[in-house]
Amino acid sequence: MRQSITDLATELERQKTTRMDVVVDSREIKAVSYNDEVQLEFPVPYGAGDMVTTFGMTPWTHGQISAKTGIPKKYYDRLMDGHQGLLADNINEWMPEKEQRLVRIMDGNVRAFLSDRYRIMDNYDLLYQSLDAFKEAGAQIHQADLTETNMYVKAIIPHTVKEIREGDSVVPGLILRNSEVGAGAFKVEPFMLRLVCTNGMIGESSIDKIHLGGKKEAGIVEWSEETKQAENSTIWLKVRDTIESTFNPETFSKWVDQVKRGADIPIEYPVIAIDNVVEQYNMTADIKGELLNHFMKGADVTQWGLANAVTRTARDLEDVNMQVELESIGGKLAIMPERELLRMIA
After folding, report:
1. How confident is residue 220, by pLDDT bands cut at 50, 70 and 90?
2. Where are the alpha helices (DSSP H) in the chain?
3. Is 4 domain-assigned?
4. 215 located within any domain
5. CA distance 278 to 272
6. How many CA atoms lie within 13 A of 77 on its CB side?
7. For the chain, which terminal residue's Cβ has fewer other Cβ atoms within 10 angstroms, N or C?
8. What is the domain count for the chain?
């Protein structure tokens, strides 16, 4: 869901007050069928003892349970539709034994089912650490999105302008992405905004940090500010350094020079090129249609035009996770070496 930076900060503040993290022995986790849903039941420490509590699950958590138990997702989803009791039995039968699981809960639902070694990097902390660095760099927030699985924050420096061709200008930026639920590594990546159409493309990751830390003790995980700061201080320093480096004019100039080369490489067979790009990156038929439409309408049958057709298609998508994925693909296509590109689209 696209939000203003103020709305994003407000929502992350709210989430801080409604979430809870619990480390639970897998032998104490039970799936139950209730009100046409499959829920998880396990003991949660309250006061001096434990209270067995039942929680719903988000769609993302169902996917994690499917993967952890080895129940094929197609079969899992089929049981979700009218066979919840059987699904609960399957989960209980195939749940691994003697594992400590980090269970992340928010708004009464399990939102993540993770290893007890999962390093928690809060969206809230990441946002505020980054805002200070953006301010120092003279950057402004371009876009902020929060989905069930990821937070994305894009920032740009609007006064640093470069041309790919005459009249086709771009400005530098970066995108921060983080998942609190195990949907991918924490990343800081270069971002380029094309001014003529506000398409964006994402470059290669400058930070790609998996969420892996030390084991946690059973029970509710209490995260003091001091603990979080100690665990993530090295990462925060690297984030600030990366932000500064990404916004460096020389860094951006090198990226622009790479992209410029693609503006002179023609695509002789646009339809075949689109077919091969769709196959290479496992795109859907709907995206293929939009991609071909934007490529032909753009009247720029070059490597740069192909990359922009992908990012233009991304701009229309409601699914933010898919939008970011296409922007990354566009970034790869824009700087792909000529021989590799021609081999892929031939």
Report:
1. very low
2. 5-18, 59-69, 73-80, 84-94, 123-137, 225-246, 249-262, 270-280, 285-298, 303-315, 320-335, 338-345
3. no
4. no
5. 10
6. 6
7. C
8. 3
